């Protein structure tokens, strides 16, 4: 059972983003395992992907389409089969899925980004199963399907993860809504296993990509469950520009910081939800490190503590054995560590 995590509620639609789900029977019968996201024309998209060298076929295709395509109009997400470790057949399946979506939506195949999650290394028959339910998926597209989509992208998750935030900017209401899945293979180098955040703000070009990078640095790139990085990790930020504001194209724009902070809040909530729903999790433990030489040094110490089996067993047993914390700090590779200056707090600081 997830630690202090309730099912989604009060989820807000984002103008220009329509979603739909379907039962494609990719691994199990009788569960919704396919999600289609359709973006309004003119939407801007940025994404980050796993750095695992064994990255899945849909990651390779999505990277290529994002870099070389005509502009993203749709995302297709399946659960049940990760389409990873599947070689040329997996690449063909991912590309064929994009062609099927493009035919249904009337866009170019390069305008479709594919995503998969589930079992690694199994033969794929994704394109055929996706094609069979796509017509119904297209008919069902609607702006109020975020909660259904958050449930449909789950694999071993026990709770759907979705949240919304709104801010006011120059008298205009800006909405940010996001969803994520993940509970195992969680120590992202860029994002969680799968995460999708959308806003109706007019974030364009370099400002959009920088916003995603900065939000990830303060959220998904600071969590761990088991220390493993998935083959399929991806995080996508979509900006439809439907809010009646002039475009924000540079981080130097005075409005940029407020938009980035709102998106970061959503990303942080989702990242924490992933940890709270970690496989076998019984506690949610924030680790705060200060006084290091720089941010990288603090992160090194934090991850050394978070990945220590001895510390994990102490927390699991509710045993405040702070000696294990000292041992982890001392073995974090900080050559000039001031041992006499180390202070440890358990609980509120």
Give a structural overview:
It is a single chain. With 349 residues, this protein is an alpha+beta fold. It is built from nine helices and nine strands. The chain has helices at residues 57-68, 87-105, 126-139, 146-152, 205-217, 256-276, 295-306, 309-316, 322-330, and strands spanning 17-22, 34-39, 44-49, 74-81, 112-119, 161-169, 172-181, 194-199, 234-239. It has a five-stranded mixed β-sheet with strand order 3-9-8-7-6, sandwiched between helices. Strand 8 (194-199), helix 5 (205-217) and strand 9 (234-239) form a beta-alpha-beta unit. Helix 1 crosses helix 2 (87-105), helix 2 (87-105) packs parallel to helix 3 (126-139) and helix 5 runs parallel beside helix 6. The longest helix is centred in the last third of the chain and has 21 residues, at 256-276. It is globular and about 65 Å long. It starts with 16 loop residues before the first strand and ends in a 19-residue tail after the last helix. The mean pLDDT is 93.
Q: Please bin the fraction of helical residues.
A: 25-40%
Number of strands: 9
Oligomer: single chain
Unreliable parts: none
Main sheet summary: 5 strands, mixed
Give me the secondary-structure category. Answer: alpha+beta
* Largest sheet, spatial ordering of strands: 3-9-8-7-6
Distance N to C terminus? 28 Å
The radius of gyration is 21 Å
Mean pLDDT: 93
Shape: globular
Number of helical elements: 9
Strand % is: 15-25%
Tell me the series of helices and strands, N- to C-terminal: EEEHEHEHHEEEHEHHHH
Family: Belongs to the ArgJ family.
Subunit structure: Heterotetramer of two alpha and two beta chains.
Keywords: Acyltransferase, Amino-acid biosynthesis, Arginine biosynthesis, Autocatalytic cleavage, Transferase
GO molecular function, one term: L-glutamate N-acetyltransferase activity
């Amino acid at each position: 059972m997830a630690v202090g995590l309730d099912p989604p509620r009060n989820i807000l639609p984002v103008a220009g983003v329509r979603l739909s789900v379907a039962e494609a029977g990719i691994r199990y019968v009788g569960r919704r395992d396919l999600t289609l996201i359709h973006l309004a024309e003119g939407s801007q998209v940025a994404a980050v992907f796993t750095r695992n060298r064994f990255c899945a076929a849909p990651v390779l295709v999505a990277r290529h389409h994002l870099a070389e395509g005509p502009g993203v109009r749709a995302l297709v997400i399946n659960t049940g089969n990760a389409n990873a470790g599947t070689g040329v057949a997996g690449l063909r399946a991912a590309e064929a899925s994009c062609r099927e979506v493009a035919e249904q939506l009337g866009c170019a195949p390069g305008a479709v980004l594919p995503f998969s999650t589930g079992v690694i290394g199994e033969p794929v028959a994704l394109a055929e199963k996706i094609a069979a339910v796509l017509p119904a998926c297209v008919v069902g597209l609607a702006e109020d399907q975020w909660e259904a989509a958050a449930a449909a992208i789950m694999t071993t998750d026990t709770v759907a993860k979705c949240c919304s935030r709104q801010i006011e900017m120059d008298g205009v209401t800006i909405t940010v809504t996001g969803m994520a899945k993940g509970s195992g293979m969680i120590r992202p180098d860029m994002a969680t296993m799968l995460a999708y955040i959308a806003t109706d703000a007019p974030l364009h070009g370099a400002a959009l990509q920088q916003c995603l990078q900065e939000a990830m640095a303060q959220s998904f790139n600071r969590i761990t469950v088991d220390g493993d990085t998935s083959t399929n990790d991806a995080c996508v930020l979509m900006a439809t520009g439907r809010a009646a504001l002039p475009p924000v194209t540079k981080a130097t724009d005075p409005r940029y910081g407020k938009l980035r902070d709102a998106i970061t809040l959503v990303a942080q909530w989702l990242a924490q939800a992933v940890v709270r729903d970690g496989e076998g999790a019984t506690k949610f433990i924030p680790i705060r490190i200060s006084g290091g030489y720089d941010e990288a040094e603090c992160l090194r110490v934090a991850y050394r503590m978070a990945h220590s089996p001895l510390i994990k067993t102490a927390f699991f047993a509710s045993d405040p054995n702070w000696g294990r914390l000292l041992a982890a700090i001392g073995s974090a590779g900080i050559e000039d560590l001031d041992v006499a200056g180390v202070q440890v707090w358990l609980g509120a600081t």
